[in-house]
Amino acid sequence: MHKVEIWKIANRHLVNERQRLVLNRMMDGFKGFMNTSKYAKLAKCSNGTAFRDISEFLKQGIFIQNPGSGRSTSYRLPSPKDLRS
Question: Would you give the end-to-end CA distance of the chain in angstroms?
Fold first, then answer.
């Protein structure tokens, strides 16, 4: 059910192939949190492109930024509780 809710949000916006790849990976047992360098490695893109894709996910509510900044900035998918609020 949770995956369906996240895809409902994602499908309201244009989601490119890189974003689809990363989103599927995160919903299928990704360990830990996402950050720019992990995104870039998974999507095989530059850190700049990864940052732009992540920024779009943040605006769309697909990613939530965890506490922390700088090198420790990380992101997660919204929990079912986050989606209800």
Answer: 16
